[in-house]
Amino acid sequence: MSKKVLQFLSADTSVSHAEKLASTLGGFTGIFLISVISFYFTGANGAALIVPSMGASAVLVFAVPHGKLSQPWSLFGGQLSSAAVGVSCYYLVPNIFLASGLAVGLAIGVMHILRCIHPPGGATALAAVIGSTQIHALGYEYVLTPVLLNTVIIFATAVAFNSFFPWRRYPVSLMRFTDAPSFNVKKPSRFIDKQHIERALADIDLVVDLNADDLQRLFALSLEHAETPTFSAEQIKLGHYYTNSKHGAEWSVRHIIDEAVSDDPKKDMVIYRIVEGHGLKSADSCTRTEFANWAVRELFPTHLANN
Question: Which of 48, 129, 213, 254 has its CA 20 to 30 A from that of 92?
């Protein structure tokens, strides 16, 4: 198979084994609970149609917990608005084929208007039209039970489950640290103005799972890495936060809490506390050079980066 064909068929989703395991376990936990609830309220046939929709939501909140389309407003707004559209199409359009097309198409349109694009919403709308007699018997109650109830379950499960893994949080606003600084804190030597990014996104005219702020920070961070690929001892500063960028259980964030400055590299010491990840809340010391060799990139508390 040629390289061009492989590029066409594949996407770069390289993640650590720990991340893959976390996504797998999270999906299992969320869907197990949702399956039980769906069966209780709609019976086996109803559950068979509803669970696939929530399964798609599980892929987003557990495999891509920091994605724009996975966040709470997309999850709740997309599922509930699509459910309402689907039930309405079932009642108002007698032709099942026309109703099916309208349910999915209008659900997409409504999600666009409400700014809550959530791909599984299309399946939720479709299930309201082509579902079993148990689904149809629910009427607009379908929006509340099981759709709202299942959405609450998957949301609560995602929040709780992702909290066990320091490098991931759901929703993304719960992340304590970010790769990119606020420009009020540290303005990069080169960066792309947000208005230019917004214009570029408008030119593309496609839904991108990142907003202009995310892209601006991504570009700024990329330029920073390109300009300073490794840390030197002089770049390790008191009060700053650094990470080793390891995957899974080895990931950690260190905060420099004290230092003993010396011209002799062997006596130039820093004291740090681990504030996220492996060794959480423990403290230790090492030379500034040793710390620089450990650090891969600087992190910034989100309460500063978001200002």
Answer: 48
- The gap from C-alpha 30 to its chain's centroid, in whole angstroms, comes to 16
- Contact, 171 vs 291, CB < 8 A? no
**CA 158-162-164 angle, 5° bins:** 135
Q: Pick the more confident residue, 184 or 59.
A: 59
What is the spatial distance between Cα 126 and Cα 30, in angstroms, rounded to a whole number?
Answer: 22
> What one-character-per-residue DSSP string does 60-93 give?
IIIISTTSGGGSHHHHHHHHHHHHHHHHHHHHH-
For the whole model, what pTM was predicted?
0.78
Residue found by looking up tokens 């909140």 in the block: 61
Residue 73 has pLDDT above 60, yes or no: yes
| Cβ contacts of 149 within 8 Å, gap of 6 or more | 37, 41
In the structure encoding, which two tokens stand for residue 220, read together?
């700024």
